[in-house]
Amino acid sequence: MESKDFPVLEIRNLKKYFEIQKGFFKKKNSLLRAVDDVNIELYSGKTLGLVGESGCGKSTLGKSTLRAIEPTSGSIHLNLDKKYSLCDLNKDELRSLRKYMQMIFQDPNSSLDPRMTISDIISEPIKANYALKKHDIKNKVKNLMEIVGLNSNQLYRYPHAFSGGQRQRIGIARALASDPKIIVCDEAVSALDVSVQAQIINLLKEIQEKYNLTYLFISHDLSVVEHLSDRVAVMYLGKIVEIGNTEDVFCNPKHPYTEALLSAVPKDYKNKKHKKIILKGEIANSINIPSGCAFHTRCIYAKEVCKNESTYLGLTENKHYVACHLHKDLNLSGIF
Ligand code: SF4
Questions:
Q1: Strand, coil or helix: what is 103?
Q2: Which residues lie below 8 Å from residue 249, measured CB to CB, with a gap of 6+?
Q3: CA 20 to 30 Å from 124, out of 42, 53, 99, 329?
Q4: For residues 284 and 290, is the Cβ–Cβ distance under 8 A?
Q5: pLDDT for 276-332, tens place per residue?
Q6: Of ligand 1's atoms, which has the minimum distance to the CA of residue 325?
Q7: Which atom number of ligand 1 is nearest to the Cα of residue 296?
């Protein structure tokens, strides 16, 4: 069933709004639009990088994707032996599919329980999903430790006995323990030293090839995303403003926001020089999103139309989509 571009996860019109209570009596409600009408697909065995500034909604999208938090509306289809509509499943049905969808978090210190041994941490998802005998669980845990580059003799140590990079390896082993198909990596290497980052990125690549894993790799660091991703989606104030193959997006960015993000990366991509663009101001508040194109308050190319007319993702070429009024001939009919 799985071919080269087989979408293992299809997300359509996904929204996640939070109601914020304001005022002295907390009676005034506002809506924070963290994720606003997002359409993406994750292809089997491939990585979609998700980039954008802090506060743009990347992590909320990652968690909503797996229904780790409840989306406000939209659909998520998981394609395995059959098509599962995640938003229509009850808690028990969702729990039975959880093993196929895991997360790796940014901070390995807070994502590992300091009172549990490494053996307990890694065996927890195995016990929850498989009826295995004690020695088989132990062997599986040891095997996972070796796969992620840890010494399996350290089975009964506690997380504090390991370095930051080793703790992230433990987090990866725990994510692998239930034999997942999809892993959401939420800033998974951001808290690590640069040299350790490279080791963890290589490890993620190795296990992706070995187990045909599909990643949604969330990061604010474009250099890291470039290393790992087959495609890249750029997010601004809850919306995807550009998505395409990594090479197309990095060499030929279509959205002024992507252009600005790339111009802030010290190194050039494939000898393509990006002109220096200094972004004005901070990302706007998701409660009070600017009218028209939400980026118009910071965009160096903004025109009158940008203040008044919303933008929609449209196809330019080669599965490269952008939402910007600068591109006149966008094909808005197709969803990727
Ligand atoms: Fe800039 Fe206008 Fe394009 Fe928005 S639509 S990114 S404001 S040029």
A1: strand
A2: 231, 232, 234, 242, 243, 258, 320
A3: 42
A4: yes
A5: 777 777 777 878 889 999 999 999 999 999 999 999 999 988 889 999 999 987 777
A6: 5
A7: 7
Residue 268: is its pLDDT beyond 80? no
How many whole angstroms from 302 Cα to the centroid of ligand 1? 5
pLDDT digits (tens, 9 = 90+) for 128-165: 999 999 999 999 999 999 999 999 999 999 999 999 99
Distance of CA 211 from the midpoint of ligand 1 (Å):
41
At 287, give phi and psi (nearest 5°).
Answer: -85, -30
For residues 41 and 5, the model is more confident at 41
The bridge status of strand 101-104 relative to strand 83-85 is unpaired
Between the CA of 259 and the centroid of ligand 1 the distance, in Å, is 12
Distances, alpha carbon 1 to alpha carbons 24, 64, 76, 85, 91, in Å: 57, 26, 19, 18, 27
Residue from 258, 297, 300, 311 whose mutation best tests the ligand 1 pocket (most atoms within 8 A of CB): 311
Q: List ligand 1's pocket residues with C-beta within 6 A.
A: 255-256, 293, 295-296, 299, 301-302, 306, 311, 324-326
Q: What is the pTM of this model?
A: 0.91
What is the number of residues in the chain?
A: 336
**3-state class of 29 per DSSP?**
strand
Query: Angle 134-147/164-176 helices, nearest 10 degrees?
Result: 130
In terms of Cα–Cα distance, which of 171, 255, 185, 251 is closest to 213?
Answer: 185
Q: Is the pLDDT of residue 3 over 60?
A: no
Are the C-beta atoms of 4 and 231 separated by less than 8 Å? no
Would you call 295 exposed, middle or buried from its count of C-beta atoms within 10 A (0-12, 13-18, 19+)? buried
Q: How far is the CA of 255 from the centre of ligand 1 (A)?
A: 8
